[in-house]
Structure to design on (275 residues):
């Protein structure tokens, strides 16, 4: 596994896994793609780590990963994260998609137009918190059936960014006495005190060339590689350097302009009276 926050990230909205997912790839690339597909989120998929696990050298793996990018299964880049504790920082990302994507889809993903996968295990987290309420506040003790019934309401709180402490205060502060029906009271509070939906914030992502690491807009990285690494000439390379006579003529124009400006400069008179 990579350090927390790094490693493999699965692209959203993928099709269900089948035995035909990578049959369009060469055998080596298909085997590597199938291996990456089964790795968990956050797994280290760097070339060096893969070389210690798979029967391929680093050069072969680097070539295979570039081909996976070109086929639309992989993109590498950076993403900006913001948090109250650490502030703003850019981290390296490697996004893998079992379903092959074209350049247009990856460009939309980089802009944040494609939704991220929903949070996992929020229902289990909600069930645990509701079951623990009775230990914190005995008058709010719930049965297993009550926890299962109320958990979907609490899941929506997590989806809107609420923390466990926020939820516990909302459910247990200012309780009436006595409480005859704790499940009914909690249902009312979970419904009436539901926090507003957070304003959507687009992600800050940049993609990088698989070969040289040059960052750029998705449109400038077709197949995950910059135009220079794909062997395409830039405008400057197409036009070529200026011919020597043109360079000399331009230099003469600049020197003539500087000389004319120097000759037209008015000399500064000494304000002191002559003796």
């Amino acid at each position: 596994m990579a350090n927390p926050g790094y490693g493999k990230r699965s692209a959203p909205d993928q099709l269900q896994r089948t035995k035909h997912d990578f049959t369009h790839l060469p055998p080596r690339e298909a085997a590597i793609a199938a291996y990456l597909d089964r790795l968990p989120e956050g797994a280290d998929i760097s070339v060096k780590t893969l070389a210690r696990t798979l029967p391929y050298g680093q050069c072969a793996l680097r070539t295979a990963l570039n081909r996976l990018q070109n086929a639309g299964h992989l993109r590498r880049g950076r993403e900006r994260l913001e948090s109250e504790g650490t502030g703003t920082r850019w981290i390296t990302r490697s996004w893998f998609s079992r379903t092959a994507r074209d350049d247009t889809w990856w460009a939309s993903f980089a802009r944040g137009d494609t939704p991220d996968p929903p949070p996992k295990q929020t229902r289990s987290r909600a069930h645990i918190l509701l079951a623990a309420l009775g230990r914190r506040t005995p008058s709010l003790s719930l049965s297993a059936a009550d926890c299962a019934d109320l958990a979907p309401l609490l899941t929506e709180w997590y989806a809107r960014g609420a923390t466990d402490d926020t939820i516990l205060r909302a459910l247990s502060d200012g309780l009436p006495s006595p409480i005859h029906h704790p499940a009914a009271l909690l249902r009312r509070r979970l419904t009436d005190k539901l926090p507003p939906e957070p304003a959507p914030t687009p992600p800050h992502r940049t993609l990088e060339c698989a070969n040289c690491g040059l960052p750029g807009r998705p449109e400038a990285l077709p197949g995950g590689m910059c135009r220079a690494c794909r062997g395409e000439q830039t405008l400057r390379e197409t036009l070529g350097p200026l011919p020597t006579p043109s360079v000399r003529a331009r230099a003469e124009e600049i020197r003539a302009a500087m000389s004319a400006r120097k000759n037209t400069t008015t000399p500064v008179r000494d304000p002191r009276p002559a003796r």
User: Anything to note?
Assistant: Strands lie at 8-10, 74-83, 87-96, 204-208, 215-216. The chain has a mean pLDDT of 83. The domain at 8-111 is CATH 1.10.10 (Arc Repressor Mutant, subunit A). The two ends are 89 Å apart (CA to CA).
